[in-house]
Amino acid sequence: MVYVGIPKGQANQEEEVLKTIQDGDSDELTIKRFTESREKPGALWHIYAAKDTEKIREFLKKVAEEQGQENPVDHDPIHDQSWYLDRSLRKRLHQEYGVQGWAIVQFLGDVVFIPAGAPHQARTGVHNLYSCIKVAEDFVSPEHVKHCFWLTQEFRYLSHTHTNHEDKLQVKNVIYHAVKDAVGILRANESSLSRP
Questions:
Q1: What confidence tens digit (pLDDT) does each residue in 165-184 have?
Q2: Which of 69, 101, 114, 175 can bridge 48 by disulfide, Cβ–Cβ 3.0-4.6 Å?
């Protein structure tokens, strides 16, 4: 979070932000960080475990059906980024599916790392508390190549006009170049590796 702009002269804005943070299920330390240290909160995130992805997808499809919305085969309720799980939906998700996430308030200067494959509210509309600027970067770590490859496969089934249809992570290219570099280093040091 590189910038948080707090407008001057708007009555009750701090109270509204505090209420949003509290309604967002933030912990007491986060609330104190806002109320006592006067740091600038920029965004409220909700992050879920990657293992709960299918349960969340099933839940969102169920809620969409209850609201009379269609669930086309070539769309995905998580990747479509069309949902924000407010407090009542988060509570219902926990009660009906046993899924509970983590609430994180990102303050000015904070970095938030999202584990590979972890559904999070940024996909479905992170809740900005004030005007803010965030810098985001996708990366592939060796420990999570499997999750990244799995996400790439999910994207392939989305409609061709879907914003996530393309392979943004380029996992196959990452793997190819990592192996190519490793083989190149091994060949360059082949003579020193064979010595006793």
A1: 455 667 777 778 788 888 88
A2: 101
